[in-house]
Amino acid sequence: MAVVVNMPRLSDTMEEGTVAAWLKKVGDRVEEGDILAEIETDKATMEFESFNEGTLLHIGVAEGDTAPVDVLLAIIGEEGEDISGLLNGSAARAEVKGEPEAKTETKQEAAPDASTEASEIPEGVEVIKMPRLSDTMEEGTVAAWLKKVGDTVEEGDILAEIETDKATMEFESFYAGTLLYIGIQEGESSPVDEVLAVIGPAGTDVDAVLNAKSSEGKIEDQVTVKAGKEESVSKVETAAQTTAVNGGQRIFASPLAKKMAADKGVNLADVKGSGDHGRIVKKDIESYTPVVKSAEVAPAVAIASQETAGSAMAPIQLPVGEEGSNEVKNSQMRKTIAKRLAESKFTAPHYYLTIEVDMDNAIASRKQINDLPDTKVSFNDMIVKACANALKKHPQVNTTWKGDTTQYNHHISVGVAVAVDDGLVVPVLKFTDQMSLTQIGSAVKDLAGRARIKKLTPAEMDGSTFTVSNLGMFGILEFTSIINQPNSAILSVGAIVQKPVVKNGEIVVGNTMKLCLACDHRTVDGASGAQFMQTLRAYMENPVTMLA
Asked: Which one of the listed residues 151, 421, 446, 525 is annotated catalytic?
C-alpha cells in the first residue's frame, strides 16, 4: 500500500524546507534506511532517511524548490500502484508537481489566459529563475558565471555559483542548449524568482521570450511552461553533486569535497568515496594520499653581497607608489551576522566584568585527567563545566529578557562559539550541568567539527541559555564579546600566561587566565554578575569541586 511522505519538520522553528538534492528518482527501489533526499533549512542541510520500503512512485517537491512543512514530498508504494487518489487528496498543495495532466487541468481552470501566453514560448526554450535555496532566503547573489552568453550548455553543466546568507552553491543546468541571456550579472543581487537566465536553441528571439513572460507579471515555473517534465527550474548541486569524468563515468562528491580537492590539486577520479552511492565526502579528501612524483631540485645559486664604499651619505630614497583599494561584496552570511550583532549591541545595555584566575590547579588537574586511558579534556571543557555549575547557583544570569517579563530558565544549556568560513555559529550543549567533563569534551569536539562543514541541524544550534567564546588558543589575553541573544550573558576566555604572582607573601612564577563576562543590564545587575564571577573563579581554581 502506497505511503505518503510529507516535508518533515526538522526543528521546532522550521516552517518550510528546500530540497537540496534527490538521491532517488521516480521508479527507483527504496529500502528502509536509504537516503531519499537532502533537505536544506536556513542553517544546515540534512539527509532525509526513508522509513518505508518500496518503489518511489512520485516526487512532490523538485530539487531547488521550497515547500512548507507537511506538504506532500514523495509517495512510496508498489510498482505500478494507482496513486491518483493520494494525489487528488493532497489539499495542502494547489497543484501537483511532476504530474503534467493535473498541472494542465489546474492551469486551464485557474488561468486560461496565462496558458495562452505561455504557449508563445518556443519549444525547447527554458526560462530559469533565481532559486529559493533556504526558507529564509529573500535574495541571492551571483558569485560567478561559469558560462557566458553564446556558450553551449549540456545537462549537468555548472551555470553559475549562487551565494546566499549561509553558503555559496554551484547551480547546475537541468537542460541542454545555448545560453541565450543572462539576467543577473556577476556580483549583483536579485530577489528570488527574478529571471536568472534563458537557455534554448541558438538564434531564438530572446526579447520575444522575455516580453511574453513579463506580460504575465511573473516568470512561471518551468514545469508550467513545458508540460510533461517532472524536473523543476534548476538543480542546485549541494551535498550530492555529480561531476562528469573518465569516459562519461560520473563521480558523486559533496561541494566541500570538491573545493578541498581543487585547493589541494587532487583529481576526484583518484579518490574512493565512502559516502552514500560512493559519494566523495570531506574525510575522503583529508585521508587521500596522492602518489608522490619525483621532482627535480633546482641547484642553489649563491648570491654575493656587496658593500658600498665611500664616506659620503647617500641621498634618502623615499618610496614612490600609487594609492589603491578595492571593495569586496559582503556575503549573505556576513550581512546576517552584522544585523543580529547590531541588534544585540544596540538593544541590550552591555556592561563588562573581568577577573584573573589562578590556573595552576586547573593545569595539574587536567594533566591527571588526561593521563587516564581514552580521556581527553581541554581547558575550554573545564570552563564550560564551571559555567554550568555557576549558573545553577546564580539563576539571575540564566535568564532571558522578554520585555514585560524576565524568563528564568530552569534548564542550563551552554552554547560554544565556533568560527567557520566567513562567519560564526554557536552549537549548544543541552543540559550542560548534567554532563561530565569527558561528555562535554566529546560533545564539543563533535559539534565543532560538524559546524565547520555546515552539517549541524537547526536544533543543535537553538536553545542556549548562556554562551562561551574562547580566543585563548590564538594568544588573545582578554577581550569582550557581544551577547548572543536571547541570552543575558556571554563569557570571553583569554589565553593562559605565565607571569610573576604573589603567593604566601612571595613572588613566584604562576599561570593565570583572564575571563570577561558581558551582561545585559536589563536582567543581570552588577552585583549578580560579580557573584557569578566569584563562583566561577572558585570552580576554576579548585577543579576538584566540579567533580563532586
From this structure: 525
Nearest of 495, 433, 493 to residue 465 by alpha carbon: 433
pLDDT at 403 > cutoff 70:
yes
pTM of the model: 0.48
pLDDT of residue 13: 58
- What is the mean pLDDT of the segment spanning 459-470? 93
Secondary structure tally for the chain: helices H, strands E? 12, 29
Domains of the chain: 3-93 (2.40.50.100), 112-239 (2.40.50.100), 335-547 (3.30.559.10)
- Write the DSSP string, 484-509: -TT-SEEEEEEEEEEEEEEETTEEEE
Q: Which of 157, 360, 462, 521 is catalytic?
A: 521
Element (H, E) at 515: strand 506-520
- Beta strand residue intervals within 112-240, DSSP E: 126-129, 139-145, 152-153, 158-163, 168-172, 177-182, 189-191, 195-200, 235-237
Please say if 525 is a catalytic residue. yes
163 in helix, strand or coil? Answer: strand
Residue 269, pLDDT score:
85
Residue 15 amino acid letter: E
Could you report the per-residue pLDDT of 121-164, keeping only the tens digit for each?
777 788 888 877 655 567 888 888 999 999 999 877 888 888 87
Per-residue pLDDT, 93: 43
**Closest alpha carbon to 517 in 537, 502, 498:** 537
